[in-house]
Automatic annotation (TrEMBL):
Keywords: Membrane, Transmembrane, Transmembrane helix
Record Pfam families: DUF846
Protein name: Golgi apparatus membrane protein TVP23 homolog
Classification via InterPro entries: TVP23-like
Transmembrane segments: 29-48, 54-74, 121-142, 148-167
GO biological process, one term: protein secretion
UniProt organism field: Galbula dea
Membrane topology category: Multi-pass membrane protein
Subcellular location: Membrane
KW rRNA processing (keyword) present: no
Superkingdom in the source lineage: Eukaryota
Length: 192
């Protein structure tokens, strides 16, 4: 599979941004709300589920639905609106799979097309929640709660997939993420 990166204008966002008032720190409050709502709701339901009901199936279905809504909302809506990034898989006529990672074009004036507040909300939610699900995974594993491990693995996979996709969009699909991490850690080590 080959990776492509393209600079495109998503939904004519560059034109809309130039028309909007610069006073607003959060340009897409509904997208910002739903970016965090589904993620945080899934975590809260996971934490409080055993206190609220004794039905594991009801809890599992609720958590999986919230995680699925989060995956769809982040991948298809909030990533485009809040930071101007999107990714998807495309299958060509030969049956080969191509991953496409896109980033919004930077406006010619040099002004930022997305607000800093939205960018912080997006990346904080995108990074923090998968880390929390990984902690839940170790907790379920070491406490021998095997039935909850399946739910937690779904959380790690769905939120980890979005995190990976958006990191590839942000840093560029052609760069090797492992070598970038090694270079960063090497620089940090040399500074100390």
């Amino acid at each position: 599979s080959s990776d492509d990166i393209e600079d495109v204008s998503l939904f004519d966002a560059d034109d809309d941004v130039s028309r909007r008032s610069k006073k607003s720190k959060i340009r897409h409050p509904v997208a910002s709300f739903f970016h965090l709502f589904f993620r945080v709701s899934a975590i809260v339901v996971y934490l409080l589920c055993e206190l609220l009901t004794s039905s594991f199936i009801a809890c599992m279905v609720t958590i999986i639905l919230l995680l699925s809504c989060d995956f769809w909302a982040v991948k298809n809506v909030t990533g485009r609106l809040m930071v101007g990034l999107r990714w998807w898989n495309q299958v060509d006529d030969d049956g080969r799979s191509h991953w496409v990672f896109e980033a919004r074009k930077v406006p010619a004036q040099g002004s930022k097309s997305s607000s800093e507040a939205e960018s912080r909300i997006f990346w904080l939610g995108l990074i923090t929640c998968p880390v929390i699900w990984v902690i839940f995974a170790f907790s379920a594993l070491f406490s021998f709660k095997v039935k909850w491990l399946a739910v937690v693995v779904m959380g790690v996979v769905l939120q980890g997939a979005n995190l990976y996709g958006y990191i590839r969009c942000k840093v560029g699909s052609r760069k090797n993420l492992t070598s970038m991490a090694t270079n960063y850690l090497g620089k940090q080590f040399l500074r100390q």
